[in-house]
Structure formats: structure tokens, C-alpha cells
Amino acid sequence: MNAFDVVIRLVYLAVATTFVLGLHLMNSPVTARRGNLLSSGAMAAAVAATALVLVHEGGVRTWAWIALLAGAALGSGAGLALARGVAMTAMPQLVSLFNAAGGGAAALIGAHDFARHGASLPVVLDVLIGGMTFSGSLIAAGKLHGLVPGAPLLFPGVRAVTALLATAMVVASGLLLTGHGGVVTLAALAVAALGSGVAVVLPIGGADMPVVISLLNAFTGTAVAMAGFALGNGILITAGALVGASGAILTKLMADAMNRSIGAIVAGGFGGGDSTGDRTPGQLPVRMLSADDAAIQLAYAARVVVVPGYGLAAAQAQHQLHELAELLEHRGAEVSYAVHPVAGRMPGHMNVLLAEAGVPYDQLAAMEDANAAMPQTDVALVVGANDVVNPAARRPGSAVSGMPIIDADKARSVIVIKRSMGHGYAGIDNELYTAPTTGMYFADAKKALAEITAAVKLLVA
């Protein structure tokens, strides 16, 4: 081993160590931004080191270098533009698209390695997992963006089709690994994998999308690790293994937070998708509030707990919420935020949204801590949340039975800001809305919070 190889291996070792450190920093909202920047810098160093290896080996022609640099420039520019321009509400879709890009790239690497060296276990897994991740992530992104219906799409014979595709993948993989398959067999494996991604994700309802995103993220990491084995690149193996392991852990945590097994989630058929519905408030026995009513309750409360949901993100009302919270704090109220693990459309969605508005990290309470303090809370302000505050989860027989929830109904009074009486993703009525201590404020979250803030200011004056 010459000096150049030693330096490259030391760089890869430093990069791998930095990846682990960056992942650790992402465990807390306070250090997550630093961890993201650290990991991004490490990946840039890994790419640069790999480019130096190619130059040193002299195995890349001029035209290939032009294509490589052009592709890197286009990919980096597109990624930067998407990341900077995407709205917070569309961040889950962007994550799904990145998952699709990772899975697709891994599948192409597998196909390329097959053309050069023939079939191997990493090549087969690359094409299989990468293909499923690519198509499944595109369907998930479509569901989140509204291009594909959020409700489960259970077309006739979907289970039989899924089983047939799974059988085709097993047979094609076996032929390739035993040396009896060629390009046609590899193509059949790729088509079956792409079809499986579509067939598996289509029947999954919108209520399970946060878990699906995490699961597909784990698949992407696994596919990248297999690409690393196929190319003999240790840093790809390390990065892919870290993504795969962290995605798998997050998937398990998300499933536990919804009290649903991963198998039940993959089986699909749960949730009808978020809908405003066609009911009017008068069709259910709810107590409606005005801005002045809500302002009086909040202005004279000693402790307020905010429970944010996707409605807050959809209305882009995080800044109005923070303004109201600061106003209440100036009056002497203690304000905290109870964020459910699956609030929003992906893990951490609400945390990032609130951080963007300047909400202090120490005001974000874990669900267990928030629930312990809820009986001593004067007002629970629920903004756009639905299933994660439904008391029906505490009794058997409902679609959300056993799901851990924010115990907003145990506060002395509850104010719910919501556009309508429409269902959440579970497709059932929320018993919190008809509770005697609950007042409903029907409006877009941004408009409602602005009106309540103005009314509180008048009381202060």
C-alpha cells in the first residue's frame, strides 16, 4: 500500500467518523443544524477523495470526466434549488423524492456492475431494493402532494398482484445468483421491483405516510450500502448502513407512536386521507368560539400548552402562533408546545416548523412530559391537530385505539382551531371536539391566530 492509498483511507475513516458524529448531533433540535452541516461537509470530502482516486488510477476518459462533472453540477444545482425553494409543508414530499433518487441511483449502479462483472448478491439486492424504493417513494410523494389520492387504493386483485411480483423477484434473484440468468432476467427483476414498490405503497393510507417515509428511507440506505459493496467503496457502505439503521429505528419508533405494527402498515387499508368533509359545525354538538372568547381564556391563563398539527403547517401559521405565545408570556403565562411524534407528515416536521418561527427549543415538551402536566394546564390550544388528540384512542373499538395521544382533553379548557369538522387521516370523528370543556374556532390557522392575537392586545391595552 503506497502513501496515496493510506491518505485516502484515512480520509474515508475521518468521513465515516464525522457521519456518526453528525447523526448523533441530529438527535436534538438544538444541534441538528450543526449535525446536518457537518455530515454535508463530510460527504463533500468523500466525493472529492473518490474523484482523486479516479484521477490517480487514470481509468476515466475525458468525455467521462465531462459527463461526471456536468452531472454533479446539475444534481447539486437541482438539489440546492429544491431545498431552498420548497415550502415547509412540502418538505415530506421532497424527502420522498430524495429517497427515490437514492434508490434509483443504487439500482443503476447494480445494473452497471452486472454488465461489468456479472451477478452477485450486492448487485441483485441493489436492483431489487433500489427499484422498490424508487417507485414506492414516487407514489408516497404523490400521495403527500395530492397527485395520488391519500386514501388507500385497494384495486381488485392487488394482493394477488403483489404476491405475483414478489414471486417473480424471488425467482429472478435465484436465477441470477445461480448463474442461470442474463440481461433479460435482470430486466425482469427490475420491472418486478418497480411494480412491487407501486403495489405496496398504493394501498397504504395517508395516516401511515410518516412511517412509510421512514421505511423507504431505511430501504434507500440499504440500497446505497449494497452499491458500496458492488463498487468496493467503504464510505458508501458506511453511509448506507448508517442511513438504513437509523431509518429502521425511526420506523419502529413511529409505528410504536401510532400503536400499529410495521406489518399492519405495509398491509395497508388504514385511513381515508385528510378531508374537510361536507359537514357543517351545526351537525354535531360543538361549542363555537369567537376571537374575543378565545382571547379572554388565553389572556388570563397561567399555563398554556400548544398542540400543533398539520393544519398549522398547511396554513403557514407558525409565525403567528409564536407571536401569540410571546404576547401571552409577556402577560406572565407559561407557554409550552406538546409535539406528538407523528404530528405533521413526517418525523420532526413540527419541530422544524416551530424552530423556523423562532420558538425556543426548551419550550418543546415531549409527549410524556406534556401529558403529565396537562391536568394543571389552564388552556390547551390545539392548532390543526386531529387524530393525535382524539380521546377515542383510550378505549377499544375505534380506528385509533391504543394510539398514544396528547391528553389535551385533561386540561381545564381546550381551544381548537380548525377549518371545519372534517375528519383526520383515520377517518373518524374526534371526541375532543364535542367535549364540554372544548371550544371550536373555525377558520384557517393563520387568520384565526392573527384575530386572537389582535383581541388579546386589546385586552392588554
TrEMBL record:
Keywords: Cell inner membrane, Cell membrane, Membrane, NAD, NADP, Translocase, Transmembrane, Transmembrane helix. It is a multi-pass membrane protein. It is found in: Cell inner membrane. Residues 9-454 form the NADP transhydrogenase beta-like domain. InterPro entries: DHS-like_NAD/FAD-binding_dom, NADH_DH_b, PNTB-like. The transhydrogenation between NADH and NADP is coupled to respiration and ATP hydrolysis and functions as a proton pump across the membrane. The chain crosses the membrane at residues 6-25, 37-56, 62-82, 94-115, 121-141, 153-177, 183-204, 235-255. PANTHER family: NAD(P) TRANSHYDROGENASE SUBUNIT BETA (PTHR44758). It holds the Pfam family PNTB. Its EC number is 7.1.1.1. This is NAD(P) transhydrogenase subunit beta. Its main location: membrane. Belongs to the PNT beta subunit family. It comes from the Bacteria. It catalyses: NAD(+) + NADPH + H(+)(in) = NADH + NADP(+) + H(+)(out).
